[in-house]
Amino acid sequence: MDFTLPEELEAVRDSVRRFVHEVWEPVAAGYEESGAFPRAEIRRMGEAGFFGAAFPEELGGSAMGFLAVSVIAEELSCAAPELGYCMNLQAMTCPFTIFNWGEDRQIRAFVPDLIAGRRIGMFALTEPGGGSDPRTSIRTTARRAGDLYRLDGAKMFITFAHAADVGVLLARVPDAPGHGITAFIVEPRRHPGFRADGIRMSGLSWALRANAVFLEDFPVPVEHRLGEEGEGLKIALNALEYGRLTVSARLVGLARACTERAVAYAREREVGGRAIGRHQMVQERIADAVVAADAARLMAYRVGWAMDRGLPANRIAARAKYFATTAAKTAAAALFEVHGGYALADEYPVRKLRAYVDMLTVGEGTENVQRILIAEDALGFRDADRHPSRNRLRRPAGD
Ligand SMILES: Cc1cc2nc3c(=O)[nH]c(=O)nc-3n(C[C@H](O)[C@H](O)[C@H](O)COP(=O)(O)OP(=O)(O)OC[C@H]3O[C@@H](n4cnc5c(N)ncnc54)[C@H](O)[C@@H]3O)c2cc1C
Fold first, then answer.
1. I need a labelling partner for 359 at 20 to 30 A (CA). Which of 44, 177, 248, 396 fits?
2. Catalytically annotated residues
3. Which residue's alpha carbon is nearest to atom 44 within ligand 1?
4. What pLDDT, on a 0 to 100 scale, did the predictor assign at position 364?
């Protein structure tokens, strides 16, 4: 008997795997070649309910909860890492931030379409001046002019910006309280002054890409401000906490994908008349990968479990993300080693899996950013859960 998930989560896991096999795999190479954005398939994922687990039924969600988000993100990333981005932009960082911080009219205007896959989301925090410390690096300005804000500046590495209909974007309002950082709901395809230039990244998808974004006199109606002026940093940090749930799970999915492929290859590849998996040094790699993937998975589940109870989760989300990075790297190294020279051949997905591990190592806070958060908390310098955690799906009892 092993630790098991509830039956309905196992069923969701199966449906994700089936979707990738039956719907995505036949068309994936075509999208990669053309660079077109797979809107139809993302819509089908929305219709299948993959994005709605953290949202109430009246918005079109399933309210299955955050553990379900984790399970879906893990499975998607394991089977097709490029689709894993959707779990942030259609299911969590973009729509959940609007749901968690928005007014009712904003929630109703944007969330149902995002989680149904009818509109494409983005989350634009990072700037060319650095992603690790948004408090100091955000230079994009939002100047109030009557009923509009006018945005000028640049964002860097913004996933799906080339296709996004809706986004959460952070900019600085001059003279606003605190650091002036303010969150906005933006509609890039509706207004002029928004340009997205794709960034080519070795091993990563071109169809589902990250972009450099340029904003020039880009208008945002005042009613699309999310929260108050100066509240943006709090909103962004809260968004990253939930983003770390999906990113941890996506890393676990990658760790599993690498481990499963390493095991299969080490069993089948024979050198000198012996399967290479019979060699102790190969076994050491396999053992490290198997155990790391397992442990990372339990840590990711714990984050979902805590969020499902409305408990503060910043500390455990940072730890889960950090450890999942280590696990995925360990598994990717095992995969690379057992494949020998074939690891470099495009015919095998070894370099692709490694590229996604690298990407997620950086996204939602680099390793150093997690180390700082985790160590300062452990040392008692700065409590990682010092800010009340906002969670509108699961308010803690009595809240
Ligand atoms: C493919 C891809 C997709 C992305 N998608 C998005 C997206 O959709 N939206 C978004 O907003 N961002 C996105 N990002 C950006 C990502 O979150 C940033 O790359 C990340 O936060 C790091 O920022 P940076 O690259 O500017 O590195 P920097 O902040 O310049 O850091 C460089 C290095 O210095 C280290 N460092 C920095 N400060 C310290 C310190 N105080 N102590 C010790 N070490 C430090 C960092 O750990 C890092 O190793 C994406 C990135 C990639 C690669």
1. 44
2. 364
3. 368
4. 86
